[in-house]
Amino acid sequence: MSVIDTVAETGGKSVAHRLRFLRGGTLAAYTLDELDRLAGDLARRLLADGLRPGDRVGILARNGIEWVLLDLAAIKAGLITAGFEFGKFDDPAALAERYGLAGLLSDLAFEPGSTKARDLRPAVSATLEAGPGAARPPEAPPHAWALDDGTTLKFTSGSTGEPKGLAATVGSIESSIAAVQSIFHHGDGDTILVFLPLSLLQQRYWIYSALAHGHDVAVAPFEYALPVAAQVRPTVIMGVPGFFESLKKHIERGGLDPDDLAGRKAAIEALIGPGIRYLWTGSAPASRDMLEFFDDCGMPIFEGYGMNETCIVTKNHPGANRIGSAGRLLPGKRARIDADGVLIVGADHPVNTAYAYCAPGESEKVFLPTGEVRTGDLARFDENGFLWILGRADDVVVLANGKNVHVRGIEERIRAHAAIDQCVLFGSGQSYLVAVVSPAEAPVPDEGRRAIEAHVGEINATLPKDEQVRRTLIAPEPFSIEGGLLTSQFKPKRKEILRVFGDEIAKLHGVTT
C-alpha cells in the first residue's frame, strides 16, 4: 500500500508510536492510532459540513496538532490543502479569495462574511474536544488518490515578489518518502523532530512516514525546538544550515577547546539531547566548517539538495557521504548539467510541470518542455556521482572589468567566523566587492568589529585580486525572518538587503547618492 493510501485509510495504525506536540505550553501526545481516528472523525465532519472532494482548504497557523489534524483529514476526505507560512501572510480573508478556498483554518481572526470560505476552526476544535475515544458512525471509504493528482498547494519562500504556488502530485510525495526510507530506514526507536513550518511540505513527510513506517514524531514551533528536543530526545533532527550554524556558534562562544571532541559532543547533546542517530540539513548552502563541527565528534550530519519544484533530488547518507557535496541522486531522480553549467532535474514522478500561481512567464523559466526543471543552480557531478552546488546562477557578480565572481564560496568562508551570522557580497558593475555582514549578536563592540575586519583580511590574503572584499558594512542588528531580511529557511534575501542598505553599499563603492 502506498504512503498516501496508508494515510487515507482509517484504522489499524500503530498504538506503540506517538505524535507529540505542544498544547497549552505543555507536551501532549496521541498514539498514531488515536491521531488517525481523530483525522477520520474530522474528515467526516468536514464532508458533512458541505465540503466535497476536490475542494481547497487553507491552513494559516503555527505548527501544532490543529495543523497536523486538518492536513491528515484532508487526505482522507479528498480535499486539497494550501499551506501558508504563518507570519508571512496577514490577511486570511484575502488569501481565501485569492486562492479559491472553500475552508480556512487560521490563527489570525477574520470577520464573518469577509470571505465565502468556511471557518474550519470550530470543526477542528470539536474533534479535539470529543477526543479519539468518541463514538463514531461507520467509516466512509477513503478517498482514492491517483499518482498525478495534486494533493496540496505549496508556496515558494523566495526573497522577492508574490510567492509562486505549486500543486504537488501524489506521485512526487510517494516517491520522495520511499526514496528517503530506502536509505535511512526510519522505524521503531526513532523520534523525528519537526520544527520548521508545516507549510513546507517536506516537514509533513515525516508525519506521513510515521503513519506508514511506524516511528515517533514530535512537532513544535521553531522557537520551542530546543526545549522540546530536551524532552522528547529525538533520534533525527531536520534543520536548515542556519539552525545548526547557530548551535555551533553558541557552543564556540562558550570557550570549548576546539580539539576536545568528546566535550564538543557533550555540549551538542546538552542542547538537542542524547541518542541522535543523525542530523539532516538542506534547503540552503551548508558550510564545510559547520558540517565537520558535528561530523568530527560523532554526530553525523547529512546534507542534501532539493527545491519546491523538484522535491528532494540528492542526499548524503550512511555509507555514501562526502562532506561539502549534496550527495548522490535518489531513486526516481535524474539530472544533467546544461551548457551554462546549470543543474537540470528530471523525475519519474515530477512535482508538477507548471506553477498553479505565478507571474506571466515564470513557469516557462523553470519548467522545460521535456518535463525537467531548470534549477538555476550552478553545479557539477564528480566521478563518484556526488553533486556539488557551486552557487546560484544569479549569485554571480560581474565586476566592471567583466570578471565573473562566484560569491557563494567567499560568503561561506566569511560567515564561518563566530561573530558573523550571515554575509552577502555586492559589486555588480563596480570595481570591487563589498560585504554586508549580519552580526551574530548586537551591538558589536569595537574589538568585535576589529576581529571581523581581521577575519575578512585573512581570507582576502588567499584570494585573487578580483575576488577580494575591499570594504565591509556590519549591520546594526542580526538579519531576521521577522525583519524581512531572511527567508523562512534562513536564506539571506539578497535583493531586500540591497534595498535596505543600498545607500551604505553605494558609499562603500565610493558612490554618493
Outline of the structure:
It is built from 16 helices and 24 strands. The protein is an alpha/beta fold and 513 residues long. It has a nine-stranded mixed sheet with strand order 2-1-10-9-11-12-13-14-15, with helices on both faces. A six-stranded mixed sheet has the order 6-5-3-4-7-8, sandwiched between helices.
CA radius of gyration: 23 Å
Count of alpha and pi helical runs: 16
What is the total tally of β strands?
24
Strand order of the largest sheet: 2-1-10-9-11-12-13-14-15
Strand percentage lies at 15-25%
Task: Let me know the average pLDDT.
Answer: 91
Largest sheet: 9 strands, mixed
Span of the ends, CA to CA:
64 Å
Structural classification: alpha/beta
Shape: globular
Helix content: 25-40%
Topology overview:
Blueprint: H1 3-8, E1 18-23, E2 26-31, H2 32-48, E3 56-60, H3 65-77, E4 80-84, H4 92-98, E5 103-106, E6 118-119, H5 121-130, E7 150-155, E8 165-169, H6 170-184, E9 191-194, H7 201-213, E10 216-219, H8 225-232, E11 236-238, H9 241-253, H10 261-272, E12 278-281, H11 288-295, E13 301-307, E14 311-315, E15 328-329, E16 333-337, E17 342-347, H12 362-366, E18 373-381, E19 387-392, E20 396-398, E21 404-406, H13 408-415, E22 420-426, E23 433-439, H14 446-460, E24 469-474, H15 494-500, H16 502-508
